[in-house]
């Protein structure tokens, strides 16, 4: 009887152990049992740039998107904790920043979403933007609200360094006009690109220039410091025409003779003192100009109503001391001498960017002046674009 009772007790114990072991065993094929863990959330939140990204271009928008769910909230903040502007799409599937970022800055984003299964998910992270080796400034001319002559080029200069990737820069430049105007950009050198029309601007044209340079790689580790823009107007059509042997200066408005003034131009016999051939533009106006030139033995020489049309040294100005030769003999050192009253009348009529066309001289204007765009034939000008 005692052995039988012990066998019954042991049998009961083995049965209990077998039942406990059956509750924690793994089903064939690796599947969980009836008491397995919860399913992971369905929603997946992704950000670009990715968490911990480095050297991120500051002009590329930050985006956050979700699949199998909708975004509840997205916030992007700068190092000071200030929010960066952005907008959540109407369908709540994506968010996109709407302002450019700074150079060499750290940004933090936080996003939350609700999945189609009702479960909440979050994404948190940081990234840093690129740190340029240098950020040279650029300038644009003409500036805002200027009214300029029909030969005025648009000039973008990079005074603090050379541009290596000229094509990239040129692609970032845009010229919009109130009426159709054919024109082209041309690189005059590594630090200047100009746009000019094939022919003179139509009078009254409204011009808008935009240069999306911020964040743009110039090459050599340099990136654009800031975007540029300008809005200006082309004034009336006024063209000065000087055929040096005629000893006069003619001014045309809209193709018709507007005024004609007796003149004494550069000395014909000496090409170094000629008023050189070429199309230049009015660059500067001074009521009194200083024409001192020790090389030729004269100092403290002041002349009235000085209109510069070249940095080679040519002006239109009064010279009453040369009155005997005005209208008769070319006797100047390259400038166009007028009687005082005529010089004043012309001075008052001229604006920056008016063309000055000179013909009849022995010498041609060298391309050393600041503005020599019109000395370059159109076909050659087009070939000076980095996008040709």
Could you explain how this protein is built, in words?
- One of its GO terms (cellular component) is extracellular region.
- InterPro entries: Big_10, LD-transpeptidase, LD_TPept_cat_dom, Transpep_catalytic_dom.
- With 388 residues, the chain is mainly β.
- It has 3 domains: 44-128, Immunoglobulin-like; 139-235, Immunoglobulin-like, CATH 2.60.40; 238-373, L,D-transpeptidase catalytic domain-like (Beta Barrel).
- The chain is built from 4 helices and 26 strands.
- The strands form 7 sheets. Strands 20-19-18-26-21 form a 5-stranded mixed β-sheet, with no helix packed on it. A 4-stranded antiparallel β-sheet has the order 1-2-5-4, with no helix packed on it. The chain has a 4-stranded antiparallel β-sheet with strand order 8-10-13-12.
- It starts with a helix and ends in a 5-residue tail after the last helix.
Superfamily (CATH H level) name of the largest domain:
L,D-transpeptidase catalytic domain-like
Overall geometric form: elongated
Query: Residue share in helices?
Result: 10-25%
* Low-pLDDT segments, ≥5 res: 1-37
Task: Tell me the fraction of residues in β-strands, as a range.
Answer: 35-45%
What is the CATH first-level class name of the largest domain? Mainly Beta
CATH topology of the largest domain: L,D-transpeptidase catalytic domain-like
């Amino acid at each position: 009887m005692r052995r039988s009772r012990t066998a019954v007790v042991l049998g009961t114990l083995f049965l209990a152990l077998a039942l406990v072991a059956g509750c924690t065993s793994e089903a064939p094929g690796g599947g969980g049992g009836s008491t397995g863990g919860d399913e992971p959330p369905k929603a997946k939140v992704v950000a670009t740039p990715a968490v911990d990204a480095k050297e991120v271009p500051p002009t590329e928008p930050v985006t956050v998107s979700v699949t199998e769910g909708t975004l509840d909230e997205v916030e992007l903040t700068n190092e000071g904790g200030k929010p960066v502007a952005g907008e959540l799409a109407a369908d709540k599937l994506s968010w996109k920043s709407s302002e450019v970022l700074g150079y060499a800055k750290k940004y933090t984003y936080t996003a939350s979403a609700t999945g189609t299964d009702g479960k909440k998910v979050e994404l948190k992270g940081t990234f840093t933007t690129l740190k340029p080796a240098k950020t040279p400034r650029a300038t644009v001319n003409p500036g805002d609200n200027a009214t300029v002559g029909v030969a005025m080029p648009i000039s973008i200069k990079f005074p603090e360094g050379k541009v290596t990737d000229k094509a990239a820069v040129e692609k970032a430049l845009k010229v919009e006009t109130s009426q159709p105007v054919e024109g082209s950009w041309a690189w005059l050198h590594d630090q200047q690109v100009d746009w000019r029309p094939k022919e003179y601007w139509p009078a009254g044209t409204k011009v808008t220039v935009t240069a999306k340079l911020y964040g743009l790689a110039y090459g050599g580790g340099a990136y654009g410091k800031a975007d540029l823009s300008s809005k200006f107007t082309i004034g009336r059509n006024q063209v000065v025409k000087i055929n040096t042997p005629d000893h006069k200066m003619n001014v045309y408005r809209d193709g018709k003779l507007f005024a004609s003034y007796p003149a004494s131009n550069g000395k014909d016999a000496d090409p170094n003192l000629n008023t050189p051939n070429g199309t230049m533009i009015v660059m500067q106006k001074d009521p009194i100009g200083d024409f001192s030139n020790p090389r030729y033995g004269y100092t403290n020489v002041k002349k009235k109503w000085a209109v510069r049309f070249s940095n080679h040294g040519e002006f239109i100005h009064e010279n009453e001391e040369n009155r005997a030769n005005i209208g008769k003999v070319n006797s100047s050192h390259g400038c166009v001498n007028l009687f005082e009253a005529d010089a004043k009348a012309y001075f008052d009529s001229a604006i920056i960017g008016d063309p000055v066309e000179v013909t009849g001289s022995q010498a041609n204007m060298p391309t050393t002046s600041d503005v020599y765009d019109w000395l370059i034939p159109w076909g050659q000008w087009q070939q000076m674009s980095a996008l040709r």
